[in-house]
Amino acid sequence: MAPEGGKKGSANQKQPHSNKTEARTLKRKREQDDVAKLKQAIDELDVKSPDIKNFTDLPLCSLTAKGLRASHFETLTDVQRVAIPLALKGKDILGAAKTGSGKTLAFLVPVLEKLYRAQWTELDGLGALIISPTRELAVQIFEVLRKIGRNHTFSAGLVIGGKSLKEEAERLGRMNILVCTPGRMLQHLDQTAGFDVDNLQMLVLDEADRIMDLGFQSAVDALIEHLPKDRQTMLFSATQSKRVSDLARLSLKDPEYVSVHEEATSATPVTLQQHYIVMPLAEKLDTLWGFLRSNLKSKIIVFFSSGKQVRFAYEAFKRMQPGISLLHLHGRQKQIARLEVTSRFTAAKYVCLFATDVVARGVDFPSVDWVIQADCPEDADTYIHRVGRTARYESKGRAVLFLEPSEEAGFLKRLEHKKVPIQKVHVKDKKKTSITDQLQSLCFQSPDLKYLGQKAFISYTRSIHLQKDKSVFKFQKLDLDAYAASMGLPGTPQIKFKKGEDIKKLKNAPRHGFSSGSEVEDDEDRKSKKEVVRTKYDKMTERQNQDVLSSHYRKLLGDDEDAAEGDDDDEADFLSVKRVLGDDDLDQAAEEGEAGSSTQPKVIQLGKSELIIDSNRREKLLKSKKKLLKYMDKPTKMVFDDDGVAHPIYMLQDEEDFALEGPASKLREQFVEVEANKVREADVEDKEIVKARRKEKKDRAKARERGEELAALGPQLDVDSDVEMEDPLALLRSLPTPGGDYNQSDDDDRDNNDEPPKKRAKKWFEDDSEDERQKEKESKKRKTGKKVIEMDHEPDNLQDLEALAAGLLED
């Protein structure tokens, strides 16, 4: 029976295992049947059918359909209605659609369906690769992929940098879908061992034209060489260019061109209101400040051409506090900071984001009200992508472009060619405010802000100088001095890339030619003069204070005048320092001011006073700044108000302004009330201070009393050793007291006695009367014949010893 029972138990144990195997087999068979039905439905699908309007009209697996419903995606957009059916049939696609038209789902849904029909598992390796030009767009694509693919078993990864290459390499081998940036992905393909892409099924390039513009063309070409040739490829962008077509010939096979907005009247959404403002370069920051102050209850993105301009505008406006939350985003920030800024901007309701073009493409920020382009974009495509951050998918939005007068005509032609409708508007006079004084005050107070302003100025001018479209960006027509002043800079920074034709000529020109008082020569006069290269010897001979050495060099060079003088006067010494002048030479020297002093003294204006230079001593005084101070007007100390306007510290108020403030009696009452409040607050603080001091005094007294009680208990033992603690006042007690005779026998008696004299215990209240104490004191004095001073306890601190000494010195 036992063996039979054992066999029966083993059969019961194998039965659940067989049930699981049968369940897995049935599940696999159902999946294969579903895949077969999907393939048949896709083969029978008519890509041009007008009945395809929702995601339910497409032959999608149940897992993808469930993820789309959970993410609230139901209706197909124009680009999705055309691109997804073609992608499901395995066609290569080159697509272009307006910003905010749903291009992300147009390639993510085919990616999931492709891997599902192939029954892809972790053991099969990488199945789909999605490349994005920026990190922010890659993060957004990955988040959408997680939402709609939540029911699938595929593993997805995000490779955008910001972490160590080793940490990312450890996860790559387990990924089925990768969302990445081109440079980081190429780095893994070259350096990560064991990273296999031979089984790749689908390659997706989002914003492909921007990938070429950012200089990733060589990286993408090298990346494509690593990938297998037998794959499905899709390219999507809001704009098309010739470079994208070149890339299509390299990586796509008979692609289907999907262009939704070719027949449309505009390349931008219809719900987008587009305007532009023409203003001088120096008024750009003033206009931006006035706009922010007028739209505090809005969500705004402000685009600049460089990250340094973003940093300066953010730091300056943040200190001026416009009344709206400010954020900034540029490519130089670390990955964690960039992700934090994007999440904060997405969640906020009223906020302003200063950004570069890193968020100009593809990034979907919800409910953006305004897109401000403070700097003119490099081309019309960049303009389209920037304004596409608002008016996303049939929502409303507004965009404003700031243009310099020299940029207006050329850039409007570019927008007209792209079918972009835009209207010119003007800023209301009452909305115009100048923040130049405030920026000057901030730059003066903060050297860091001034440094950022200088870098921002150079960065902007360099970007304008390097622009390829010279019909729009005209560097020579920019008023750079006024622009630097509008930024609060003390002067215009030097521009190193500004190439001059006569730089060497300017360096070799005499110094007096650069003085502010020199006249500008005509072109004919400049051409008529003979250009001679000046050497250091020529400069030495032109010095005003010449010595023997310079005279010697002048003689060696063979000056004509010196040679003529040598012929006329043979007795002239070879090393003579002074030059011999004739009558004509003296008259000419007097006229030119080279010999002797002028008969008319020189007058120099120093503030409101005049300084007359009538002697060599006065001329030397000009070289001493310390001595020159007494001739100059004393400077007036200035203060800056809230608007950044400088005022003297003490200013007398006009009678009219004083009358506008109200009657004098009321002002007096207000002043008295304010000062009384200050006095009451000061009294409260003083009382707190006195209370604290009293408490501290009581604590010290209690601490002293506790020390006296310990001393009354006799010497204590140290906790850490058996040695008796040393009494710090023992030496003072051993000294003879003044007023009494020193007796050696007292010491002998004290030494012979082993036990120390008992201290009189301290009592908080004495029971004996004052008369009994006095009698006891007199009896002790009669017995010993010495002065007796009675103390409540043995002196153990400095105060007791002082009291003892004072008692001894009374008699």
From TrEMBL:
Catalytic reaction(s) noted: ATP + H2O = ADP + phosphate + H(+)
Subcellular location: Nucleus, Nucleolus
Record PROSITE patterns: DEAD_ATP_HELICASE, HELICASE_ATP_BIND_1, HELICASE_CTER
Basic and acidic residues bias spans: 19-34, 525-545, 682-691, 698-709, 753-779, 787-796
Gene Ontology process terms (BP): rRNA processing
Keywords assigned by UniProt, alphabetized: ATP-binding, Helicase, Hydrolase, Nucleotide-binding, Nucleus, Ribosome biogenesis, RNA-binding, rRNA processing
Annotated spans, Disordered: 1-34, 507-545, 682-799
Biological role: RNA helicase.
Stated name of the protein: ATP-dependent RNA helicase
Taxonomic source organism: Podospora didyma
Lineage of source species: Eukaryota, Fungi, Dikarya, Ascomycota, Pezizomycotina
